[in-house]
TrEMBL record:
Domain of life of the source: Eukaryota
InterPro entries, per the entry: TLDc_dom
Protein name from the UniProt record: TLDc domain-containing protein
Boundaries of every TLDc domain copy: 1-136
Length: 144
């Protein structure tokens, strides 16, 4: 299985990759955002986003899911962490409306705006940690 996401040839300086470590096992989830993360309570529109999962250290078990609904690819809701459509969401166990913790420690995966499920279950689950990495292009000049 050759996993090359759509839109890889496009380059933007704002693109990020999010990695999520699931609590209690070796599972890693994540997603690619070719746009800038915003706090506008609007949808991010792109055909180039994708989400992925690694159930364990065996790369052959990886799942890649491209966005199929470009108008709902990214959700810029201010009360949550990174949200890839409605398919991969990070949020807090406490409601922001109740002025609870802003520690984003719960995730949910379900197939809505991307090609396929990246987990076997749609139930909420705890995460150990998550990180968002900005991807930048470096031009290296060699002295001759």
């Amino acid at each position: 299985m050759h996993m090359v996401p759509r839109g890889v040839q496009l380059w933007r300086s704002d693109c990020t990759v999010t990695f999520i470590k699931v609590k209690g096992n070796e599972e890693i989830l994540g997603g690619y955002n070719p746009l800038k993360w915003e706090t506008t309570d609007r949808w991010g529109i792109t055909e180039d986003s994708f989400i992925f999962s690694f159930k364990d250290k065996n790369v052959k078990n990886a799942i890649l899911s491209n966005v199929i609904d470009a108008y709902n690819a990214l959700d810029y809701i201010t009360s949550c962490g990174p949200k890839f459509g409605s398919d991969l969401n990070i949020y807090s166990t406490y409601s922001y409306r109740n002025h609870g913790s802003k520690a984003f420690d719960i995730t949910r995966c379900r197939k809505v705006h991307y090609e396929r499920n990246i987990r076997d279950t749609e139930y909420k689950f705890s995460i150990e940690d998550y990180e968002v990495f900005q991807i930048t292009r470096r031009n290296i000049m060699l002295d001759k």
